[in-house]
Every structure is written in C-alpha cells, then in structure tokens.
Specification:
Number of strands: 6
Strand order of the largest sheet: 1-2-3-4
Number of helices: 15
Helix content: 25-40%
Oligomer: single chain
Length: 400
Amino acid sequence: MKKIIISLFAVATLSVMLSPLMQTTNATTFKDVSSSHWAKAAIDEAVSKGYFKGYADGTFKPGAQVTRAEFAVLLDRVSSNEKVEGKGTFTDLTGNWSEKEVNEAIAKGFLTPSDYPNGFKPATPLTRKEMAKWMSSGLATSSADYRQALSDTANTVVPVAEYFKKTMNPSEYPYVSLMMGTGLMSGYADGTFGAGKTTTRAEAAVILVRLANVQKQSADSFVGLKELRAVGTTGTNMEVITPFSSGVTSFKNVQGKKMKFRNGAGYSNLNYLIFVDSRDWNNKKGIYSPVFLGKEDKLKKEGTFYRVYANQSLYPTLNGFSIEHYKNSSLSRLAVGSSIASKLPEKYGYQTLPIFEPQTIFKKYINDKDGMNLWMQNTISTDYPNNTYITDDGSRFLIK
C-alpha cells in the first residue's frame, strides 16, 4: 500500500513539473476550444503538426500565457534552420525541462544569450517585443534576404502608433517591420503594436503556423515588407505599389533637402512620401492604408487616384504665418498638401496641418530650428501623373 501511495505521488508531481508543451495528448478536439473559437483552425494545425500538445485533461488552455521557455521550444520545433554550435547557453537552464530545446533555438539563431545577462528566467511570460526579435533573428539567420530586410528597415516608417508617438526604440524598427511586413504579427485595433504585452497559447499557435509558411518564402515575396524596405532605403514606397516611376530622379535625391517658400514666409523639406492604392475603395492596398486612409476620406471618384501622404518638416519664419502662406508658397504640388481630416492622426499620434486656429499653432514654431513635423495628404491620378519637386540646391524628383 505504501508503494502504491508513493507511486501515485510521483506521477502527480511529474504532471505538475511538465510544461504544457510536454503534455501527452495530441487530440485536435479540446473541451475549451469551441468550433467557433477564432484560433481553432490554427490550434488544430499546430497540434496536428506536433508544435503544441494539449493537457491530459483534454483542454488546450488557449488563453494561458506563453513563457520564454515554451516559445523557444516551439520555435525549435517549427524551424527548418540549421544549427550552429558554440553559440552559448544560459546558466539558469541546467536541469530545466526546456534546456535541450532552448539551446537548440539558440543554435538556430533565434535567441542571443547576451540579451539576457541576468539569466534566461525560463518561466517569465514572453513579451511581443521578444517574440518579434526572436522570429526576425531566426529568419535572418536562415536567409541573407531577410538579413538584408532588417538592415533596409532601420530607418523606415513603422505603421504603428508607438513609432509616431516616439515611444518605440529605433532598435525595434527592423524587428517590428519584419513581423508586420510578412504578416507574422500585426497591430491592435487601437493602432499600437503592444511590444510589452504577452502572448496566449492561441495567439502563439496562429503565429507558429504562419512562421512555418513564411520560412519557406523569400523576403521579396511579401509586398508589405517590400514597401517598408523601400521607405527605409529610398524614402518612398511609390515604385512598389503604383505604376509611377521616378526614373533616375530618385526621391532620395531630394529627401530632407531645403525648399524655400517663394513668398518668403518660410521653408520646408520632405522626409517621406507614402502611397496608398485607393482606386478600389473596397480593396485598398498598401501596408500604410490603416494609418492614413480613414473612412471619411472616400472620394466621389476613386478609379484613377492614388493617395500620397507626405511627411514634411515645416519652418515658418514670418510672424503671422498662416495656412494661406503655406498654400501660396508656390512650391511643387507634392510639397503643398491638405490636412488629414479623419480621426487617424489622433489615433496614431502624428501631427497634420492644423485646421482650427492654425495661426496660433504656427506661432509656436516661428523660427524654431526643429520646425513642425507634419503629415499631409494629396492625390495623384494615373490620368495626370506628372509632378516635379525641385529643392534649393537644384536636386530633382520626378513622378511620371
């Protein structure tokens, strides 16, 4: 009898020690995942492919948080990367259930031990920032093109609120861009990426199924990522999603260069030109569409029009500077736009041309060396595409 009691205690103890990823059931019908659950298809696929396993009691616990150790193990299971030995390990993993697989995830290029100088702390809930960096690092390890994509997006415009509100560290731009550009991860309804938020088992299942597919494709096969790379390297996504061309007059030629107002009221420069394909309102294209194009912006006739969103640094120098001074600056049409009159500037945290009491707002920036950082909108039709932008030093950018 005593032996039976000891044996039962040992089994119970082992059950507690095992990670949810180590449970024995691989059923694809779980008591807590209904047929209408938003992630059911991904959960079923992840389980059928052996990435996840459910609990012995027939549950999956889709809302449970995923830890660092668990996600590292999951990455090891889904990854096709070759292992590179001698990449280091963590001192606090000895004897942990995940030790072998975490070390393999390190060898496959997902984790860098130096990122965790105080230990891996395997039971710590994984943040979305970590998830983005781990998967980006793994893809970059397996492919020179993904590695180049990380480099190309170091100075891009990241389509999330944290970028515009300047609460995102620039070191995160490439990782978040790679995730959003490939569709591996997306932002929340409030426009944020939520780098500090944790991830559930259901979310991880969806992401792992996506990763299994993404790692089979080239970085260049994702249009969204191509847009982000183009913006990071040339300042515009124009030639990725529109039929327009600049020939040899790249936007890079004029990016950030000074352009004086002909009326003497100030000067400006263009930093980025972002294009959105809105010709079919029910099928808008462009990774930046949710950031700039609101439902209030629908034109009576969309068929030939692309939207252009210009990031501009504006430097008013004349006391009493007004919208009229801006509109009548005699600059290129590309450099004189209109306000983005939807709720998106507030949602994402960027400034557009002021509508209410503009002179009061402009007054704050008279002779300010940093100027105003504005986003304004324009349209370009395929019927009349030609636009030329010339800076004070004679540099040109042509749309044709």
